Amino acid sequence: MGLYVIDSIFFIQAHRDIYPLDVAFSFWNKIKQLAGEGKIVSIDKVKDELYDKNDALEAWCRNNLPEDFFKDTSGIMIEYGQVTSWAVSKSSHYLPAAINEFLSADEADAFIIAYVLNDKNNRTLVTQETSEPNRKSKIKIPEPCNEFSIRYIKTMEIFRELGVTF
Questions:
Q1: CATH number of 39's domain
Q2: In 66-138, where does DSSP find H-type helix?
């Protein structure tokens, strides 16, 4: 099955909409377990997105995820270059603001795609984003994943693939 690489929307949407920290203890305990077992990881740029709000989700991550959960992306610059070149090549489709947002150093999307691309046979990207190839105002994660043949799945698919229940 390989390694599952978790996007920030996985945590944010779960916390805000589906599995609030104060209600869905078993979900969060399962995330803690999977992280501890090294089955799921994320990247430093996702950490930056999660750790900028000083909220309950940030506190949970700080207290429950292993120290090495958020992987350094400084070693994936070749793949990052491929992803950014792809985005720039789509300037006839996407609005300039969409490309600029995707390429922003503060945004995790291009980096997480590059991280998975670096070992795409053994890494699966986990995001709640859905493909919207006709959308011009935002580059959604599935579009570059499709371009680079990167496997991506949604939250519940991890649990099904790992045979996990909670």
A1: 3.40.50.1010
A2: 77-89, 96-103, 109-117
Whether residue 41 contacts residue 75, with contact meaning beta carbons closer than 8 Å, is answered with: no
Cα separation of 22 and 145, whole Å? 33
Torsions phi, psi for 124 (to 5 deg): -125, 130
Q: How far is 129 from 59, CA to CA, in rounded Å?
A: 24
- Provide the CB-side half-sphere exposure for 139 (13 A, CA): 31
In angstroms, the CA 41 to CA 69 distance is 5
Written as tens digits, the pLDDT of the chain (166 aa) is: 699 999 999 999 999 999 999 999 999 999 999 999 999 999 999 999 999 888 999 999 999 999 999 999 999 999 999 999 999 999 999 999 999 999 999 999 999 999 999 999 999 999 999 999 999 999 999 999 999 999 999 999 999 999 998 8
Angle between helix 56-64 and 25-36 (nearest 10) = 40
Cα–chain center distance at 5: 6
Number of domains in the chain: 1
Q: What is the pTM of this model?
A: 0.96
Q: Report residue 45 CA to chain centroid gap.
A: 9
Q: Which domain holds residue 8?
A: 3-162
